[in-house]
Structure prediction request, 352 residues.
Amino acid sequence: MNFEIDKASASTSNLSKIKNTDPPSASEHSNNSDLKSIAVLETGKAFPSSKWVKLNVGGKIFLTTIWTLVSKEPESMLARMFSQDGAMLPSNQDEQDAYLIDRSPHYFEPIINYLRHGQLIVDPNVSLEGVLEEAKFFGLECLVSQLESQIMQANQPLDNVPLTRRDVIKALIQTSHLTELRFQGVNLAGADLRKLDFRNINFKYACMQRCNLSHANLTYCCLERTDLAYANLECSQLVSVKGLCANMEGANLRGCNFEDPSGLRTNLEGVNLKGACLESSNMAGVNLRVANLKDANMKNCNLRAAVLAGADLERCNLSGSDLQEANLRGANLKDAELTLMVTPLHMSQAIR
Prediction:
């Protein structure tokens, strides 16, 4: 009986407050706010962020906190279901007070883990496309963009995917030294291949742009028409390589060795070495006929008996280089730097 009277009194009091046109006092505003918070909690529209909650997703129970559901992506469906402002009513509950969600638990597990720690980790036996559909359903926009990017990479044709250092080492280990190993036409762009032994390997037509081949052994390799633009080959062994018409524009070949003690010439005829750095390299006897060496740095190079006939050496820095017995017939030496030469150039070398 007392309860009914109190309830009636409260109703009368609230009614009088509604009819009153004067603004409420600070104490009245605080009381109204507290009553509103209690009412929201009673209707199940809002939850304290530290509260633990059970989710029954397709028959599997997931235990997590409200904070996990609302903090990572506050505009998602899960965040709005359990947010403090009660923007969206949660679903019905089962006999264990777990909120029922009619979705696949198989694809939901990577999603709840993403909300927990912010990292997208999907087991190999779980379809990325399936997780993507769940992410779209729950409105997890940031996760959707991550999944779409991963799916695009996974569906990229294998022919266009560059091989990694691990792939190359695996091929080297599994191939007998008696068997010819070919990386002909293979995409190795950007690979870290430093200090590896590539003797006698065929890289013809391979894409090796920006590869790191420093201190690698490329003796007797076939580099014909290989794209090595801006690659790092510092201190590599390039003894007797076949590099006909290879593209080495902007490459770093500082301190490389091209000379074969047996007298077999390295063939770089028609190679593009525009802007490349060959400083202090041993290039004795190298065939650089009609090569493009514009703006190349060839300071202190050993070019004894090298063939540079018809080569374009415009603005090439040859200061301190040894060109004894080199063939420069028909070469373009316009604006080339020829100071501090080890041996003087002779007219018989037919420089123009």
Notes: Residues 52-155 form a domain with the Potassium Channel Kv1.1; Chain A fold (CATH 3.30.710.10). The longest strand covers residues 52-57. The two ends are 118 Å apart (CA to CA).
